[in-house]
């Protein structure tokens, strides 16, 4: 039994001591049954949030109104959520009302797919009222109850179906898939941030290609920010392992997509990563040296671009792959990885030449940068200053560099 279940079992035991029932629930039970890796273990209980806070020593309120309290055992966080039912979804995305219940089955009934609607008790017995185990055996993703209703309640579930299809390499049950096709347009009501969480997971699954085909077939793709602007064929013929790389590659192919990037509401870091990757792929199509490629880009960007040209033959020639490979090898050996790593500061230059700041300082830095990168100058303040004294002439706000 996975260690997280053994530790989590102490929570079930404590709940029992106080007269409540607790179960492991959701993804962890599915993954345990499938003998897949387990990252986190969720618990569901008939204890109310206030009870949970009272019973356990270390808790964090992360959404009491939805019934969720984090309980820390040995510094490991466990989400403990009160059994609940949801009702009255009037906007396709969020229940109007969340009510607590003391019935495990009602809690399982509100869950999205049969494989996610199983619970496991303190003896590690699985409770499976909706046939999750059978569906797992048959590798089928099927909603709990009528798919039309379930997707009407929360349109995100359709994208979650595609995400699980990618992740587990399962197929979607025919009625569930038909309902996805019928309700795809309701995805437009779902907050883009929630969609991005699922897309991000989808792209990390082993079955991305099949999941993308499903998104085209059911027209989910046609109702997702940014992706809706990519032609179906372009969307289907890329081979990528992350959402970032999908976007970067599609933007390289079609620069007209860039104005839509903001629609995904990604973090600034992620947007920068994507744009840098797009730019690097473009750079590979112009003559550039290994050093320019290695020096000008973070390792993350080099690896993104390398993955893209490795997997997508239409972007590459052997030369480009090799250029990136060499750049990735060279990168850790470069004496500096950014101009800010140079051990020199502008004030020292102003003092040396008794001059005010200006563009000339940047020129000195560029000259020094080049020298350090080609190995002819050590990145040491004293040595750099000596070189500057010997080779830089300052006159009226400009400089001239004399080589020996
Ligand atoms: P993963 O291992 O990738 O986290 P997971 O099954 O744990 O997969 P989560 O998104 O963490 O997925 O959700 C936890 C559980 O909550 C699910 O297994 C499911 O039972 C339930 N759930 C999550 N989102 C929804 C939803 N939109 N509608 C209904 N039930 C949901
Ligand atoms: Mg989870």
From TrEMBL:
GO biological process: tRNA processing
UniProt keyword annotation of Nucleotide-binding present: yes
One MF annotation (Gene Ontology) recorded for this entry: tRNA binding
Coiled-coil ranges per UniProt: none
EC number assigned by the record: 2.7.7.72
Cited InterPro entries: Bact_CCA-adding_enz_type3_sf, CCA-adding_enz_C, NT_sf, PolA_pol_head_dom, PolyA_RNA-bd
Residues covered by the CCA-adding enzyme C-terminal domain: 258-388
Domain Poly A polymerase head: 23-142
Entry keywords, A to Z: Magnesium, Metal-binding, Nucleotide-binding, Nucleotidyltransferase, RNA-binding, Transferase, tRNA processing
Pfam family, one: tRNA_NucTran2_2
Domain tRNA nucleotidyltransferase/poly(A) polymerase RNA and SrmB- binding: start-end pairs: 170-224
Cofactor: Mg(2+)
Family listed: Belongs to the tRNA nucleotidyltransferase/poly(A) polymerase family.
Protein name: CCA tRNA nucleotidyltransferase
Protein species of origin: Salinicoccus roseus
Lineage of origin: Bacteria, Bacillati, Bacillota, Bacilli, Bacillales
């Amino acid at each position: 039994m996975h260690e997280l279940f053994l530790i989590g079992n102490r929570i079930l035991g404590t709940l029992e001591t106080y007269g409540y029932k607790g179960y492991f629930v959701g993804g962890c039970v599915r993954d345990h049954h499938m003998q897949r890796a387990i990252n986190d273990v969720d618990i569901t209980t008939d204890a109310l949030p206030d009870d949970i806070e009272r019973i356990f020593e270390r808790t964090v309120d992360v959404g009491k109104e939805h019934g969720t309290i984090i309980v820390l055992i040995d510094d490991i966080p466990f989400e403990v959520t009160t059994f609940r039912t949801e009702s009255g979804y009037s906007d396709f995305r969020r229940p109007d009302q969340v009510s607590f219940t003391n019935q495990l089955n009602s809690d399982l009934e509100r869950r999205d797919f049969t494989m996610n609607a199983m619970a496991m008790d303190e003896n590690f017995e699985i409770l499976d009222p909706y046939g999750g185990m059978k569906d797992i055996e048959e590798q089928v993703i099927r909603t709990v109850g009528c798919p039309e209703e379930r997707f009407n309640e929360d349109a995100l579930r359709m994208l979650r179906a595609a995400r699980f299809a990618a992740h587990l390499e399962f197929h979607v049950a025919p009625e569930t898939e038909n309902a996805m096709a019928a309700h795809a347009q309701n995805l437009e009501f779902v907050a883009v941030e929630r969609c991005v969480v699922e897309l991000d997971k989808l792209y990390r699954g082993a079955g991305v290609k099949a999941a993308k085909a499903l998104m085209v077939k059911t027209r989910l793709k046609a109702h997702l920010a940014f992706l809706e602007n990519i032609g179906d064929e372009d969307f289907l013929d890329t081979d990528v392992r992350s959402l970032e790389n999908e976007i970067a590659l599609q933007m390289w192919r079609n620069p007209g997509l860039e104005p839509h990037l903001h629609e995904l509401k990604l973090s600034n870091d992620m947007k920068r990563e994507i744009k840098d990757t797009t730019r690097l792929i473009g750079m590979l199509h112009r003559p550039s040296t290994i050093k320019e490629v290695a020096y000008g880009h973070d390792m993350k960007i080099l690896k993104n671009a390398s993955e893209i040209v490795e997997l997508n033959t239409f972007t590459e020639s052997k030369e480009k792959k090799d250029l990136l490979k060499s750049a990735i090898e060279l990168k850790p050996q470069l004496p500096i990885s950014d101009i800010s790593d140079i051990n020199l500061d502008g004030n020292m230059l102003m003092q040396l030449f008794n001059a005010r700041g200006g563009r000339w300082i940047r020129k000195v830095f560029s000259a020094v940068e080049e020298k350090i990168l080609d190995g002819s100058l050590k990145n040491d303040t004293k040595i750099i200053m000596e070189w500057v004294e010997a080779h830089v002439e300052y006159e009226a706000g400009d400089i001239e560099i004399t080589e020996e």
